[in-house]
Amino acid sequence: MLTLTRVSRRYGDTVALDGVNFTVPENTYMSLLGASGAGKTTLLRLIAGFEEPDRGEIAINGERIDGQPSHLRDIGFVFQNFALFPHLSVSENVAFGLRHRTHDALKNETEIKDRTEAALELVGLTGFGHRAVSAISGGQRQRVALARTLVCEPRIVLLDEPLGALDANLRARMCDELKAIRERLGVSFLHVTGSETEALTMGDKVAVLADGKIMQSDTPDLLFNQPMNAEAARHLNAWNIFDAGLCGAGQGQIAVRFDQIDVCAEGQVPEGRLTLGAKYLTGEFNGPTALSFFRADDGTLLQIIDHLSQPRLPQLDEGARYALHFAPDALRQFHGAA
Ligand SMILES: Nc1ncnc2c1ncn2[C@@H]1O[C@H](COP(=O)(O)OP(=O)(O)OP(=O)(O)O)[C@@H](O)[C@H]1O
């Protein structure tokens, strides 16, 4: 189990991490979701030991690792651009770490070969060892990068936007493969991404990093359905967040999911529903779903999603006012959180 306790890191005036408390349990696929600049890479670099925190502690199974040299931490790192050596073959790339690590470097060629082949088999690249890394596909390069990390049997694997360099189809396939490989190995993966769908698809648990802090860390289901604060909700790209006063629901910020708001003419709101007035701006059709955008009286942009199989919105005229309404139990109330 990896734990970060009150970890902070600043660069000049920029506070990248501000007292982060975070746990990656054993044998878990953990996603870390955050916007660009949220501090995701910084967090990974501190865990790997490429940099040190200004304050706080990092430990694996209770043993402090901050302050230890990177190569003694037994932590694997897969970089976004894979960082393979272009002049080495697939096998040589994978074997590189075994041959050159500063502690316990392997000299026995048979053992190096066996372990390299086992790592390639694990990522589904048996028979590709002799190829040049320039002569394989993007997805295969990604798997070489993973094999190169796994061959050293790390205690945890850190993946920095590992699917970012792949096209959409390949990304979906690699999602499944990464999960399967992790399950076979039984070590924890910490996967950072800016994509909420990737984070929710991959993670047994998902943590949201914003403003240098972990806003929430939960199962994908709990996070998606019960975000604990406006920041967590904002990152899921599925919740409208607005002032409770707009629908007479008290003070502070509230959130209602895109799929839980209905629309009707003003004055025709069904009994027992909370409601707010808003102007219809425009719609966006993307196949199985359609998004409708509204502007509330205080300027907040609101989105409603309609699924092709269950259309529930009336014909909407751009620029016209409508009543948006929802069941009281659809709203989440955040006390004081901005
Ligand atoms: N070496 C550095 N010197 C100065 N500022 C830095 C340095 N590294 C990171 N920062 C700043 O710290 C903040 C966090 O950066 P970090 O790279 O960790 O974000 P990120 O969440 O990984 O972003 P992205 O998704 O865009 O890669 C940013 O504001 C960034 O500009």
Automatic annotation (TrEMBL):
Q: Which residues form a coiled coil?
A: none
Organism of this sequence: Celeribacter neptunius
One Pfam entry for this protein is ABC_tran
Q: Extract the SMART domains matched here.
A: AAA (SM00382)
Give GO BP annotations, semicolon-separated: quaternary ammonium group transport
Q: Which SUPFAM superfamilies match?
A: P-loop containing nucleoside triphosphate hydrolases
Matches recorded under InterPro entries: AAA+_ATPase, ABC_SmlMolc_Importer, ABC_transporter-like_ATP-bd, ABC_transporter-like_CS, P-loop_NTPase
Q: Which UniProt keywords apply?
A: ATP-binding, Nucleotide-binding, Transport
Q: Which PANTHER family match?
A: SPERMIDINE/PUTRESCINE IMPORT ATP-BINDING PROTEIN POTA, SPERMIDINE_PUTRESCINE IMPORT ATP-BINDING PROTEIN POTA
Q: Name one GO molecular function term.
A: ATP binding
The protein's name in its UniProt record: Putative spermidine/putrescine transport system ATP-binding protein
Domain ABC transporter: from-to ranges: 2-236
